[in-house]
Amino acid sequence: MVAPVRSRLAGRLGVANYYDLDRLDLAVESTLNGAVQREMIKAVRELRDPEHATELGLRGPRMLENASQDPARIVYSFSLYESLGDRNVLRIQADNSESAFNVNEFVRLDLGSTAKLRTLVTYLDVVAALHMRYSGRPRAELRTEYANARDALSLWVLERLALHPDEALSVTLDAAMQRRYSASPNEGFFTGGGRHVFRNFDKSSDTQIMSVERAFHESVNLVFIRLMRDIARYYTYGSGTEAAAVLADPFHPARRGYLERFADTKVACTYRSTIDGCRGRAVTTRRMSC
Q1: What is the three-state SS of the chain?
Q2: N or C: which end of the chain has fewer CB within 10 A?
Q3: How many CB atoms lie within 10 A of CB 235?
Q4: What are the tens digits of pLDDT across the range 174-222?
Q5: What are the tens digits of pLDDT across the range 217-266?
Q6: What's the CA gap between 18 and 60, in Å, rounded?
Q7: Is this prediction's pTM over 0.70?
Q8: Residue 70 or residue 275, greater confidence
Q9: Which residues contact 77 (CB under 8 A, 6 or more apart)?
């Protein structure tokens, strides 16, 4: 239980190892919830037991594919933060590793597939929100909303509900997993950092059009890049937020505030002037605001 505290404390104090840390005379208060922390450590360590892992459904399709695989070789970690308004505080940090190594703090992970999971959850949450917003409305009203919609996800949900007005949410979500996207890398995508291009891990995916479900199973990057673009456009145009209202109304009162903020932003421009000297070339770089 003290491992998270010790690892962070050593870093804050600049102590090279735990041997030196244990010889300091100091008192420390932690944000960890001791009782819940002990329960979580106990829970993740129980996952090492084959029977318990099987009982929880952690052995089988899409998990440990081979039932003979030893679940004790899988390291599970868990962190929980609580938001207190102006800061986030750590309440629980646990793993089932028996070593002193703090998995939560120091392990290096490839987070690409984790990002896809977060994108998928956000996508399904958007579809569910649209279903709840428009389900049960008359077809004429849905057609009006369809004519005014400006993002792909809103259009897709509205079209489905116009054809199947009583469709259950679970059916809509299942259908959302079968929506198809191109996996082609031959397109640029504009982000907050400018225009970017992306690649798939497996080049055989480049020429395919596939469902969201298949792309998630095979971790295909370009499908999820396009899915993220649809999600971004939903929050820009179809979420009912102020941003959508500002974009839809050229006389919206908030537009002046955005314009003033943009005008006040100084964009650094760099230009180079080259001066030839007697003994070679000197390069002078100046910065200006434009």
Answers
A1: CCHHHHHHHHHHHCCCCHHHHCCCCCCCCCCCCHHHHHHHHHHHHHCCCHHHHHHCCCECCCCECCCCCCHHHCCCEEEEEEECCCCEEEEEEEECCCCCCCHHHHCCCCCHHHHHHHHHHHHHHHHHHHHHHHCCCCHHHHHHHHHHCCCHHHHHHHHHHHHCCCCCHHHHHHHHHCCEEECCCCCCEEECCEEECCCCCCHHHCCCEEEHHHHHHHCCHHHHHHHHHHHHHHHHHHCCCHHHHHHHCCCCCHHHHHHHHHHHCCCEEEEEEEEEECCEEEEEEEEEEC
A2: C
A3: 16
A4: 999 999 999 999 999 987 777 889 999 889 999 999 999 999 999 999 9
A5: 999 999 999 999 999 999 888 766 667 778 778 888 888 887 888 777 64
A6: 40
A7: no
A8: 70
A9: 44, 94, 95, 96, 97, 103, 104, 107
Place of tokens 């209202």: 245
Distance, first Cα to last Cα, the chain: 55
Q: How far apart are CA 150 and CA 135, in angstroms?
A: 19
CB–CB of 147/225 below 8 Å?
A: no
What six digits make up the tokens of 144?
């009006």
Which residue type sits at 83?
S
Q: Two tokens at 79?
A: 């962190």
